Structures are given as C-alpha cells and as structure tokens.
Amino acid sequence: MVNKKPLSDLSEWTFELLTEYQTEIERIAQHYRLDTYPNQIEVITAEQMMDAYAGVGMPIGYNHWTFGKKFIHTEQHYKRGQMGLAYEIVINSNPCIAYLMEENTLTMQALVMAHACYGHNSFFKGNYLFKAWTDASSIIDYLVFAKNYIADCERKYGIDDVETTLDACHALMNHGVDRYKRPQKLSLDEELKRQKSREKYLQSQVNTLWRTLPEQNNQTNSDKCNFPAEPQENLLYFIEKNAPLLKPWQREIVRIVRKISQYFYPQKQTQVMNEGWACFWHYTILNHLYDEHLVSDKFMLEFLHNHTNVVAQPSYNSPYYSGINPYALGFNMFIDIKRICEQPTAEDRQWFPEIAGSNWLDTVHFAMANFKDESFISQYLSPKLIRDFKLFHIHDDEDNSYVDIAAIHNEAGYQKIRSTLSSQYNLSNLEANIQIINADINGDRSLTLRYTPQNNVPLADSMHEVIKHLYYLWQFEVKLVQDTDTEPNVVIARCPKAQSEVKST
Amino acid sequence: MANFIDRRLNGKNKSTVNRQRFIRRYKSQIKKSVSEAISNRSVTDINSGENISIPKRDLNEPTFHQGNGGIKDRIHPGNDQFSTGDQIARPLKNKGQGDGQGDASNSGEGEDEFVFTLSKDEYLNLLFEDLALPNLEKNQLDKLIEFKTVRAGYCAEGVPANIDVVKSLQGSIARRIAMTSSKRKALAEAEQQLQELQQDAHDHIQAEIQLNKTIAQLKQKIANVPFIDTFDLKFRNYAKKPVPTSKAVMFCLMDVSGSMDQATKDIAKRFYILLYLFLTRTYKTIDVVYIRHHTQAKEVDEQEFFYSQETGGTIASSALELMIKIMHERYKTSDWNIYAAQASDGDNWADDSPYCQTLLTEQILPKARYFSYIEITQRSHQTLWQHYQKVAEMNPHFAMRHIQTVEDIYPVFRDLFKKNTSPIEA
User: How many structural domains comprise chain A?
Assistant: First the structure.
C-alpha cells in the first residue's frame, strides 16, 4: 500500500483519473465489506441534470405535464442562480446508475463516487425495506414498459383521457401501498406475460362483482355483508381491482402508478439513514485514502469544505433553518455509533449495553440493514447527540394560545425527545390515514372512505380536489367521512356535491 | 467494477415533450396571459417570446395530507434559551407551527405566481392555435402571383446574347476529340512506322513516300475538323416561374371620434395585433398603414393612432377615401397583398353610409385580399352596419363582426378567418 503513487489532485477530471479513483475507492469499500450492485457511472451536463430532476429520480419516465412543470421550475431557479444542482443523482437499480455532473471538480467526483456508488448503492442492496419492496434488477425494464404502455394508450385513447387518469392516480399516489403486507416483486417478463390476460381477467372479476342478479340481491338483503370486508388502506389497489367502470387500460395505468409509488416507498422511509450512511462512507473512505497517503492535503481540504457544508445543521433560529437536515442527523448518528463502539462512556454503556465496545463495522452494517428512519432513531439516538444538536421538543396544541417546550436536551428529556423525533419520521404519522370502509355494491355503488385523524390534526382543504380525482376513477358517488366526538361518520367531503347537501345549506 | 459512460453528448432535451404537455395542460391560463401581454406590445413587435405567469395554486397537484391544527409535536435543533415547561406565544400564522419547519414556506408562499418564458414560436402557436392552421395554409395559396425569370438549364437554340461561352467551348472540345480520335490513332501509327523505317539500316524509299503521304493526308483531315460548329453552341435557358408576392400591406382604419373611448381602442388594438401576427405567418414584408378618422381622415403613426385624443363627429368614408388614395400612390395591387381592418363603434353620419358601401364594393374590395370590419359597441347597430351587411352578402372576402368585450376578440378573429377561407376554396 505504502509504495503506491499518490493520486492526482488536479481540479480538472478525466476519465482516466476517475477510473484510478474509482479503483482505489472500490478497494477500500471492499475492505469495509460494502456489498454493492455493479456501478454504472454516467457523466452528464447541467441541462441533463435538470432533466433528471424533472423525472423525480426515474431515469425513464412516462410523459406527463407534471414533469414538464418540474423541469421549468428547476430551470428557472437554476438560471436565476437561486439554487445549485445536486452533485449527483443515484438510481436504485441493478446495475446501480449514478449521474455525475460534468461541472464537478476531480475532488467532488471522488466524493460523489464514494457517496453514491458505494454509500447509497450498498444501502439499496442491504437495507431490509429495499429488499422487501423493490427489485433493483427489474426497475429499468419496468419503467420502459410503463413509458411504452402509456405512450401506447395515448395513441389509442387520446392524450386527454390518459392525462386525466394519470392526474387522478397521482393524487392518490401516496395511498398505493399495503403497509402491512409484503408486496410482490416487479418482474418485467411476468408483467408483459400477464398484462394481457390480466386485463381480461380483471375486467371479468369486476363484472362478477357488479353483476346485478336478483338472487344476489335477496341474499344480501337478508344478511348485510360489508364490502370490502376489512377497511382498505391501499386506495389505488382497491380502485384497480374494483372500480366498476374503469376501462382495462385505465386499470393498467392505475397499476403502473401504484407500482412506481411502491418503488419509492422505502426511500421515503429511509431518508435520514440513507443519506447518513452515504455521508458516513464517503467520509470514512476518503479519510482512509488520506491515511494511505493516496490523496493530498489540498484534496482533503476541498473535500472537507464540501462535506462540512453538506452535513451542517442550522439552528432553529437561523435564517437557513428548514427543519432537521437528514444528512446531518444521519451522518452524525453513524459516526456516533462508531464512537459508542470504540470509545464508550459510562452513559453509553448504560444506554447502549449491547453495542458499547462491540465491533463498530459489524454494528453499523447491522444498523443499516435492519432499520428504517423511525426505528433507527428510536434505537440509536444517543444522549450525547441530543446534547450536540441541542434538540428540544415543542408541543403545539391548537387549543392553547401558546406552545409548550415539552422537553430539552437534559436527563429528563432524552427519552421524550428520542421518541418524538422517531415518530416525526414515522410515515403513518405523517401521511393522512385514509381507508376505504365501504363500497355499496348492491345499492348506489357509492364509495365511502374514512379519515382517522392523528392527534386531532384535520385533513387539509385539498381533500375536496382529491375526492374529485377519486370520483373520476370510481365514477359513482364518493364520500369521505370522519368520526367526531359526538357522532360517527360525519361526511367531510363528497363528490359529486349531493343534492341533499345543496338543499340543506 | 464500474462502467463509466459519457452521456454529455446525448440529447439534453429529454423534457421537451413534458414541457409541451405542460403548456398544453395550462393552455387556458397561458392563453389568458398571452392575451394580456398583447396589450403591452406594439403591433409589429412579435420577435420576442413572452413571460407567462400562472397562479401557483392553479398548478397544485392535490393530495390527501394533514392540515393545520390539532396537536403537533416537533423536535428542533439548537436550543439556546428554553427550559422544559416554558410557554411561548405561538408564532404568527404564516410561519407555520414551531419555527419554520419545512412546510412553513409552502403555505406562506402558496399564492406565488409560477413564471416562465414562452419561446417566440410557442407564443405564436398559442396565439394562432385556434385559427385552424390548415385553413391558413390554403389561404397562403391565395396570395398574389408575380412572375420571376429564373435560370433553367441550357438549350441548343437561342439568341446570341444568351450564348454561354464556357459551355459552348466545352462542347467544341468534346466534338473535336470525338471526331479526330481515330485519325490521331492512325497518324501516330504511321509516324511510328516511318520512324522505324528511317532507323532501319536498309532503304525503303517507296514505303517512306507512301507513309509520308498518308501522314500528310491525316494531318489535313484533322486540320479540317472545324474549331467551332453551330452544333457546339449552348444557350442559357430561362423560364418564368410564378412566385407569390411576399409583400403585404395592412391598413388599420379606426374611428377616433369622441364616442370611442380608450377601452374600445384597446380592443381594436388587440384585433390589429392579431391580424398583424396572422399576416407575418404568410408574408415576409408587411407595411402597416394607420388611418384614423373622425370627420376627416389622417395617416398617423402607431402611437398617435392608439393614444391621441380626438373629438368630433364621424364620417367613415373619409378613411376609405384616404385608403384608396394611398393604395393608388404606394401599393400597386400587382405587388402588394392588401389587407384592411376597420374598427368603429358603429357611429356614422347616416348619409355617409351608402357612400361607404359604394366605395367598398367598387374601389376597395376588388383590389383587397381581405377586408374585415369590427364593430365594438354595446348598443344596437346603426346605418353603417346595415350597409356593410349588404357588402358582406356580395363579397366573400369581406367580413364583419360585432365585438362587445375583450373576450370576444379571439372567437371573432377565429370566426373571421374561418369564414373567409371556405368561400375562396370553393
């Protein structure tokens, strides 16, 4: 190792230099047992990066106006200098595609490779949520399939209909996942093979469901069975399978949006961990390179300057403050885990008896593989980190004219802060809890959904618009109800506006 | 192992389709913006794109999400002054709960405008989108035809002035080579034989005489081939090709009598801009002549046309007379496509209207490509309208419409041109 020639620290990069760096980084990554998908590193220009932005991280997207809006938005901001572009974008696929910006200096490219190609990449491959919810090897194929299918629909059924269907699906995109069931993996071959037969089969299922046979009516009159038997939280899935009048191609589009939403589901839940893991490894790998004298002081200074900017956490009263920086929290937590393993204090031994003094590499790998943001924080956020971040807890009750400081970074507050921060990353607390409770298959075919508020937080006004989208897919009356203190199932939104409602008001 | 791929040379406009989708989707809002922009533009300024702004809430993609209210527990970093149990007055509404916290900016700036720039082409396309472009194509054929002499290859006959020297000499050389090649071959052979005989040790007097004779004959024959022949002459050929004139003149006629207020003039202005833009799609050079009139007509510049104040009665024929005069003086019908748009609030001196009808049918319409009349008024029609109606019945390229508010302009303009094209096709 020692006799190796130091790597160049020029600011201009070339593909030869990138390859040299990549080889060294990979060697170190293997030394730290980072298991990755093969890397495909693509160098792109700023404009192409804006394209990638517009595609919300999908390398191949179907055409829709919302991506155009995002692109225009990004372009405007970038041109006015209001924002810089990310140094990289990495796609959870096999091979793992990482986009590097042309403008980056050689140091930045090295940082980005360590960060994306080994940090994120190993996270995608190792974390249990990604293992359960996504299939990296088929995502690109599936996106191609989706793009072609939707383009095909546009040709056959007109852009307008496809667009409206997609709008409606996008509005419900956050409700396309079964949280408590494990999904089937995406597989393109299967998709293609099954898609045609599925169209027919699905339609026949729907037809059976909605067939109005007299005897069936009699039967249900005698014992009123509810459909669906259990409340359904996966709205898109329910629509896809049961909407009475959807055309087969629309069902397929619902399915496509649902599958893509599912693909992003783990990313939403592992933001802190994923970025923290990637930052931890670019930091560790590049420092390892420095320890081997492979990179110069100049390289390290530029790297540390950028690294520090990325993991900075502004205070609550800073003008730059916009919530907790996931990079900062994640990075510091992994560093802290390593510290607890290597130099545990008495406090650490009390709080983390299992990991204090253990092998740090085993411990971080275990943490990466088996947690998501919520559980990661509730498991590993240490009192020291709470003190370092000076975290405090604000309790905001609408009924009071003031807000409370419920806990601060002291002995009494550690537990409280840790569990509150953990639940702050719990998707089921963040997203509206809406479930389908009834589809009136024997009556007027109306669909009823229930909103169950968390901590009395009401649903935002946008619900009226979303209900319209839902109505477009269901095509019969859609009601959204909520239980209040006094009576159950109060209708809070409906589409179309009922005549009785018009009369009563 | 890693693969490096240089994508920089790949297309960068992956989002073009999506951008078009976006414009397509928000066409109605964008169009509103476009038509608002029109009033801020000069009639002839069409080379720039346009900044379009759309209220952000119109662009919102709704999802179910939690609103404000209820109980919220949030963790923030950087505690510098708080102790457990402190009670703090709730920060102002637009800052969201707590301090900042992501969604504060979302709700605080929700009413922002989403501003972006349309390119010139996108702008024009939107402006003309409803005008049924296929019809516009047909309309292009309707342009005036003038003939232009163009080179059309070469021919064997023509006047001496058109002789093409180079082509003719090329022909001459070719002919001479063709006519003498066999003789030159024979000559070379004979000379070769002669040389061989002369170098021979023995004498061949007879043979040499014979050969010399042959050589002389051949040389004579070669010399006899003429240097130039009528056959060689090539003449430049010319053909007459019909070209539609790319010149158009647009007459803007407007009543500026006391009864026309600024709002009415603005409506008229938009109409003129539309007509101008429409013409630029078809013609290369466009002159615009502004004629304003009350009891007398006057040719003015754009600024004065739209914005100077006048009062007085109305005699519409004065403007038509001036237009006829200008047409005679400056815009010969053989060179120019003449378009005219007249805007008025319908007021006219009653006795004058029949005269307007005569002027139009006899002097203007035979020469004009298209004459449109818009009446911007909230009241009932008067004599000018009635007489123009008679004109419209007789002439397919005369069109008239009634506009009441700004919103009417688009449909009316679209209407005018749709109506215009079909009779011409027939």
Answer: 3
pLDDT of residue A458: 87
Which of the residues B18, B28, B88, B107 would you substitute to probe the A interface, choosing the one with the greatest number of A C-beta atoms within 10 Å? B18
Whether residue A470 is predicted with pLDDT greater than 50 in this model: the reply is yes
pLDDT of residue A430: 82
Q: Is residue B424's pLDDT more than 60?
A: no
What is the edge-to-edge ordering of all strands in the sheet holding B370-376? B297-300, B285-293, B247-255, B337-344, B370-376, B398-403
ipTM summary value: 0.83
Q: Which two tokens stand for residue B124?
A: 């024009």
Q: Name the domain boundary from A383, A403, A429.
A: A429
Q: Which of A304, A323, A347 is the last residue of a domain?
A: A304
Residue A81 lies in a domain: yes
- Model confidence over A321-347: pLDDT tens digits? 888 999 999 999 999 999 999 999 999
Find all residues with CB under 8 Å of A219, minimum gap 6, and list them.
Answer: none
Q: What is the pTM of this model?
A: 0.69
The domain defined by B137-144+246-425 folds into Rossmann fold (3.40.50)
| Mutation choice for A interface testing from B66, B80, B88, B113 by most A CBs within 10 A | B66
d(CA A399, CA B71) in angstroms, rounded, equals 8
The answer to the question of residue A295 being in a domain is yes
Which chain A residues contact residue B85 at CB under 8 A? 404-405
Model confidence at A41, in pLDDT bands (50, 70, 90)? very high
The pLDDT tens digits for A380-391 are 999 999 999 999
Question: Smallest CA–CA separation between A63 and chain B, in Å?
Answer: 6
Helical segments of A211-321, H only? 214-222, 235-242, 248-269, 271-291, 297-310
Q: Answer yes or no: do A84 and A23 share one domain.
A: yes
Same domain, A290 and A381: no
pLDDT of residue A151: 92
Report d(CA A298, CA A73) in Å as an integer.
Answer: 36
Report residue A225 as tokens: 């069975």
- Rounded CA-CA distance B69/B341 in Å is 60
Residues A437 and A424 in one domain: no
For residue B29, the chain A residues in CB contact (below 8 A) are none
Asked if the C-beta of B134 comes within 8 angstroms of chain A's C-beta atoms, the answer is no
Q: Specify if A202 maps to a domain.
A: no
Q: What are the chain A neighbours of B5 within 8 Å (beta carbons)?
A: 40-43
Nearest CA in chain A to B114: A73
pLDDT, tens digit (0-9, with 9 covering 90-100), for A203-241: 777 776 766 554 444 444 444 567 888 888 899 999 998
Residue A85 has what pLDDT? 64
Q: What is the pLDDT of residue B371?
A: 85
> What phi-psi label fits residue B301: left (phi over 0), alpha (psi between -120 and 50 degrees) or beta?
beta
Most B CBs within 10 A among A462, A464, A478, A495, hence the mutation to make, goes to: A462
Q: What DSSP state is assigned to residue B313?
A: -
**Mean pLDDT of the region A31-36:** 94
The verdict on residue A188 lying in a domain is no
Taking Cα atoms as reference points, which of A243, A232, A231, A239 lies closest to residue A255?
A: A239
Kindly report the number of other CB atoms within 10 A of residue B42's CB atom.
12
Q: For A255-278, what is the mean pLDDT?
A: 91
Q: Is B19 on the interface with A (CB under 8 A)?
A: yes
CB atoms A72 and B116 under 8 Å: yes
Whether residue A199 has pLDDT greater than 80: no
Q: From the CA of A357, how many Å to the nearest CA of chain B?
A: 28
What range does the domain containing A81 cover? Answer: 15-127+270-304
Mean pLDDT of all residues belonging to chain A: 86
- State whether residue B15 sits within 8 Å of chain A by CB: yes
B23: left (phi over 0), alpha (psi -120 to 50) or beta: alpha
Give chain B positions within 8 Å (CB) of A25: none
Q: Quick one: which H or E segment has residue A406? A: strand A402-407
Token look-up 């696929």 returns A93
